[in-house]
Structures are given as C-alpha cells and as structure tokens.
Amino acid sequence: MTQDAVPQTPTPTRRTHVVTGADSGIGAELVGLLRAAGDRVITCGLGDAVDVRADLVTRSGRTALVAAVERLAPGGVDGVALVAGIDDRGPATVSVNYFGTTAVLEGLRPLLARRPAPRATVVTSASALSAGDLSIVEACLAGDEAVARAAAGGAAGQGRGGVIYRSTKIALNRWVRRQAADARWAGAGITLNAVAPGVVDTQTARRTVLGNAAQARVLAEALPQPLGIPGPVRAVASAIAWTLAEENAFMTGQVLFVDGGADAVLRGEGPYENGVRYSPAAVAKMVFWSAVARLRR
C-alpha cells in the first residue's frame, strides 16, 4: 500500500531586475534588498564587481549595457531601476543623469514588455523641488543632448554648476509624467515611476554636500528635512523595491518624494489647491455619455 505524496508548495517564480548605479549607495542597498527577497539582480555600474560594466556618459556605453542585459536575460526582465547618477557640475552630468537614464530605459523596454508584471523606476532627487535651468531642462526633454550639454557648459562657465544636477532631475520627473500613460508604457502594462530621495547617508553625500558644517547649514535651508539630515539609505531603497514589486500593479506616472518631509515643507498644499480643468471636448464627451447612461438605466 502506497502513501499519497504530500503536496509541495511551489517555489515562487523569482523576478529578474536590472539595477544601474549598483556599485554603491542607494543602488547597492537596493540590490541587497532585492536579493534578500529571493530575486535575481543584474547589476550595472563602473566597478569590477558588477555584472555589466558600462559608462552611461557615452552612447556606446548605453548601447553596450542594453546588449549585455539582453544576453543575460533573453526571456525579459521584470523590473528596471535606474539609480546611476553623477554631479560633476558639468556636461557629463546631463549625459549620465538624463540621456543615459532615458536611453537605457527605452532600450530595456522591449525586455520589460516580455514579462507579465513589468515595473520601471528612475531615481531622481528632492533637489528638483528647487528651480532649475530652463534651457537645460527643455533641451533634455527635446532629446537634444548636444544642446543640453552646451547649456550645462554655459551654466558651469558662469559659476552656476550647482544648477545642472537638479535640472537633469527636473527633466527626468517631467519625462516620467509625459511617458508613463503612453501606449508604449501603461498600454503595455509597464508601470513607470520616479523616486525622489532627499539627502541620505551615503559616502557621496558625506564627501560633498555634508562635507563641511557651513555647506550643511545651507543645505538644511534649501532642503529642510524634518525627519532628519541625512536620512537612512534603506528607506529610499525600500521604496524603490516596492515600486518594482509585482504588488505595484496600479501606480504609474508618480514622483514619490522619500525626502524626510522636504516636499511638504517647501510646497505645502500647492500641488493640491486647484482641481483639474477639463477641455471643452472632454466636457462634451462626459455630457454625451452621461446622457447615454441615463437612457440605458
């Protein structure tokens, strides 16, 4: 007499993610969280320990990264987190932060579309709450890297290099808002969001913006964080990890400020003061379909 086998709980299918900027800081913390959850992570960066080494400042580097990921995950990827970014106060910041990010994300979009629950997240910055250089922002959104780099070079030459980084992040936030609802993203079931961290406790932050007491005081005025400066890296990485999770099935086009309260302090109720104003065409359609709905009751 044989004994029936005890049913085995199937092992959950692991999700495969791509993380740029995986060498350090938020990117490294995110990789650790995703792997701890049992997911596979294809790490991208400039160091020797990553799976894909590529410099996003160049078009060839961006193309090489996409090609390498395609070889490593021919069946597609479930999540992409674009964490890589620099602040060299010059044109390279534009090339890496905006054009490198958007080019890699566009290049990986077909791999995302092959999976049943695809998620994409870009990391921007709470510094985008401050005004940027409009010429840099507009050139980025127009897709003109040469003009954007020239505008950044002009700003640097005028002693305004500090505005370049936040300008690239402003452009990224706006790019996400423009693209997320498009047929190529939401229409393909791909969520596209941004996470905008405040100042968190990374080696880069301690070496730069937190490097001396006077600069830290300036930062505290420009980007007040009631929950503390610097904030915890894990809090930001955890937020990104959730946006990449299968559970995040109904949020897209959002800029999530994980910033210790800076957005609430600086913008207050501003984003929510006024309701949407519909176009005459949209109002006409709503009136028409409301009438149809009443007739069909």
Topology diagram in text:
Elements: E1 16-20, H1 25-36, E2 40-45, E3 52-53, H2 59-72, E4 79-82, H3 91-113, E5 119-123, H4 134-141, H5 145-157, H6 162-179, E6 191-197, H7 203-207, H8 213-222, H9 233-244, E7 255-258, H10 262-267, H11 280-295
Parallel strand pairs: 1-2, 1-4, 2-3, 4-5, 5-6, 6-7
Helix pairs in contact: 1-9, 2-3, 3-5, 3-6, 4-5, 4-6
Outline:
By secondary structure, the chain is α/β, with parallel strands linked by helices.
Walk me through what this model shows:
The chain has 297 residues and is α/β, with parallel strands linked by helices. The chain contains 11 helices and 7 strands. It has a 7-stranded parallel sheet, sandwiched between helices. α3 (91-113) links the parallel β4 (79-82) and β5. α3 packs parallel to α6. The longest helix has 23 residues, at 91-113. Residues 1-6 have low confidence and may be disordered.
